Each structure stands twice: as C-alpha cells, then as structure tokens.
Amino acid sequence: MNNRHSNPFARAWLRLAAPVALLLAAHTAFAQANFEEDFDDENKTWEEIAIQLPAPPKEEDLIEFYVGPTTTQTFAIDAKSLAIGRDGVIRYTLIATSPAGAKNISYEGIRCATFEKKLYAFGRSDGSWGRSRRDQWEGIVRGNVNRQHAALAQDYFCSNLTIVGTEKDMLQRLRSKRTLTDSLLRE
C-alpha cells in the first residue's frame, strides 16, 4: 500500500509548512490592505480647515505686486497674513487701492489644485472683519481685467495645479518682484 504520508520527513515538513503558509497569506493580505489604504488617501474628499481671521494689515507689512498693464488699481498682500493651510489653501489679506487712494481689504484663499479662489471676509475701517456672504470657491479668471488672483496664482503661488514652495519662498518672490517664470529662467 502506497501511503504518501507514511514518510516521517514528509509529515514533519507538512507540519512546518502549514503554519508558514498561513503566516505568509496573512502577511500578504495585510500588505495588500495597507497598499490599498495608501491609494484611498488620494480618493478622500477634500475638506477645508476652519479659518481664523488675521489681524488687520499694517502699512509696513504690505508687499505690492504687478497685476497687468490694464489695471487701474494697485494691489498688495499683507506679508504677515500669508499662510499655507494643511488643506492646501494659500490664505492672505489682499489690499486693492484705487487711483484716488480708496482701499478695499479682503481676506482670501487660493487653492492651486483646482485653480480656484475664495473670499472669506472684508476688512472694515475700524480694523474688524465682516464675513463674506459669498464664501464659495470660484474659478480664477485669467483675463486682463480683475486678474489679481490670476497674477498671485500664476506668478507667485502655483504651477501645474501645485503649490510652489513655502510661505517664505512666496514672500521672497513677491518682495523681489520675481515671478515663477522669472525664477525658472534664472536657474
């Protein structure tokens, strides 16, 4: 009679191989679960963080930036307010000044990943903030008129829907009047 388990070595090997096979299967399943979990992070719904409105801007902290040849206003951001949130939104205080000297102050955000902007609040003359009634994300217009958001996004903050650098890098580009394109050409 030919019994394939009558060999003592075969029986010992089977006793050792079975637990090893179980451990390998468990390890493979665990690794696959972690692998899929890493990809699940990319599919998570984006969630905006709660914001805290900054202190009112001070004249000495303002950095003017160029918007284009057709604008009649000058634009600046408050260097102390510029921040990149954990949610990937670049937030800042924007100051628009008319030729007559009237100032409009707003706290805004730019999301490079979607090339959108959001208005959070308006600055009041007493230094307080009034929340915007339209605090929804809107696409950034690249036209010639009202292109201050496009100038910030394209020239100083974003490239290919990605945030470029840190707050310090962005402030350096703004202070030196070197756009992202200028920076690439000089490298």
From TrEMBL:
Keywords: Signal. The keyword Signal applies. Residues 1-31 form the signal peptide. It comes from the Bacteria. Residues 41-175 form the CNP1-like uncharacterised domain. InterPro entries: CNP1-like_dom (IPR014861). Pfam families: CNP1. This is CNP1-like uncharacterized domain-containing protein. It comes from Oxalicibacterium flavum.
